[in-house]
Amino acid sequence: MPDDTPTDRAAPSASLTIERVAHRYGGSVALEQISVDVAGGELLSLLGPSGCGKTTLLRIIGGFIRQSAGRILVGGQPVDHLPANKRTVGIVFQNYALFPHMTVARNIAYGLEARRTPHAQITARVAEMLAMVRLEHLRDRLPRELSGGQQQRVALARALAVRPSILLLDEPFAALDKNLRLDMQIEVKRIQRLSGTTTILVTHDQEEALSLSDRIAVLNQGRLEQLATPTEIYDRPASLFVNRFVGTANMLPGVLVSADAGGSVVALDDGTRIAARAPTEKLIPGDPVAVCIRPEHLRMVPSGEGIRGTVEMGLPLGATIVHEIRTLSGHAIKIAEPRQTGMEPRLAGSAIALLPTQPGAVGVFRPAAPS
Q1: Dist. CA 74–CA 89, nearest whole Å
Q2: CA gap 7, 18 in Å, rounded
Q3: Which of 19, 237, 278, 360 has the maximal Cβ count within 10 Å?
C-alpha cells in the first residue's frame, strides 16, 4: 500500500509532470490526454475560455478531483494516491478564503499551526512572509480591515508559509478592479520570483497570462492547443483558435497559392497577394485558408497597393490610434499605429491601402468549421 504521508519537506522548486491526464463528467469530456512538464520554479498559466477544462486540471493537480486517466507527479514522484490535504500544494482561491476572525498574522500562521510546527519556527516564518508581502505594519488587522489587494497578499503569504512544492492560483485577480489588478500582477510576479515556488495560474485573461507567465498552456474544449512562451504564443500561434483567442487578430478569407518551409503566398478574395508564414497544418495550393494579421502588424501604403478600403472609424487610445477599415470586399479590419502628439483620427470615408509589416506577422490556417 502506498504511504499517505507526504515527504518531510518538499523542495519549493519541485517540478510538476502532468502525464496524459484525461477526465470525464459522466458522458462529457472535460480533458483529453493533457501532458505538460513544468520545470521547478516556473510559472505556467492555464489559459482558455470558460468550460475549456483549466479549472478541472487545477483541481486534479491539487487533489480535489481524481482524474479519469493519467498521472500527476511532483518532483518526479506520483501523488495521485494522496488526498488534497496530504499533497505539498498551496492554493489561493478567487475569493482568498481568509478566516474573518483571525488577524493577518494568525491567518498566515494557520497552516503551520495545523502541522504542529514549533512556536519559534512559526513566529520566524510569519515574520518572513509578512516582510515578503510587505504587510508587517498590518499584522494585527482583521481581513475586513484590509483592501482587496492586501487580502490577496495575505492569502498568498498563507499559501507560501508552509513551503509548498507547487502553488496553485485560481483566477486570483478576478475580484480586483483594473488598476489594482495590474499592481497585484506585478506584486505576485515579484513574490513568486522571491519564493522560487513552481506556480500554476488559472486565468481566462490573455493579458494576465502574457504578462506573468514563463510559459502558457492554451486549452480549448479540453484539448491542449499550444504550450509555449508568451512571445511564441502571441507571435507564432499554432492554431486559428490560439490566434483569435490570444490578442486581437484581423481574419480575412483567401486561397493558398504556394507554401514551403520558408513561408507561403496567399491570394485574398479581392485579388491581393500577400506573403505569410508557412501554415501550421498540412495545406496544399488551392485550399481555402483563413489569413490572420494583428492590427499592429499592418502599415499604410500608397493608394493602389495592398488591401484597399475606406476608413469607417478612428479611435485615439492614448499612445495608440486604432482605425477600423472596411475593405473593398466588405470585410472589417483594424489597424493600430503609434499616435504622435496632436495626431487626430483619419476622416471617415477616407480611402486607405494596407499591407502587413512583414511575412512573419501573417498567419495562415485552415478555416474554422461552421458551428
Answers
A1: 9
A2: 20
A3: 237
Q: Is the dihedral of CA 223, 205, 55, 133 positive or negative?
A: positive
Q: pLDDT tens, 143-186?
A: 999 998 899 899 999 999 999 999 999 988 877 777 778 888 88
Q: Which of 165, 150, 62 is nearest to 98 (CA)?
A: 150
One of 2.40.50.100, 3.40.50.920, 2.40.50.140, 1.10.10.2840 is the CATH number of 248-365, namely 2.40.50.140
CB 248 within 8 Å of CB 286: no
**3-class state of residue 58 by DSSP:** helix
What is the Cα–Cα distance from 250 to 325, expressed in whole angstroms?
11
Tell me, what amino acid is at 281? E
Distance CA 155, CA 208 (A): 19
> Using CA atoms in the order 288, 289, 295, 301, what is the torsion angle rounded to 10 degrees?
-50
pLDDT at 34: 97
What is the DSSP code (8-state) at residue 84?
A: G
**Considering only CA atoms, which of 25, 28, 27, 47 is closest in space to residue 36?**
47
320-327, strands of its sheet edge to edge: 298-300, 351-356, 307-317, 320-327, 332-338
Q: For the chain, percent helix, then strand, then coil, each to nearest 5? A: 25, 35, 40
Q: Please, are residues 320 and 336 in contact by the beta-carbon 8 Å criterion? A: yes
Cβ pair 14, 79 in contact under 8 A: no
Task: Give tens-digit pLDDT for 320-362.
Answer: 999 999 999 999 999 999 988 888 899 999 999 999 999 999 9
In the chain, where are the structural domains located? 16-235, 248-365
- Cα–Cα nearest to 196, from 18, 7, 13, 8: 13
The class of domain 16-235 in CATH terms is: alpha beta
Q: Distance between CA 98 and CA 152 in Å, rounded?
A: 9
Q: Are 227 and 215 in contact (CB under 8 A)?
A: yes
CA distance 338 to 119: 57
Rounded Cα distance between 194 and 187, Å, is 11
Which position has the grid cell 491526464? 21
> Angle at Cα 199 formed by Cα 21 and Cα 164, nearest 5°?
100
Residue 207 to residue 185: CA distance in whole angstroms: 10
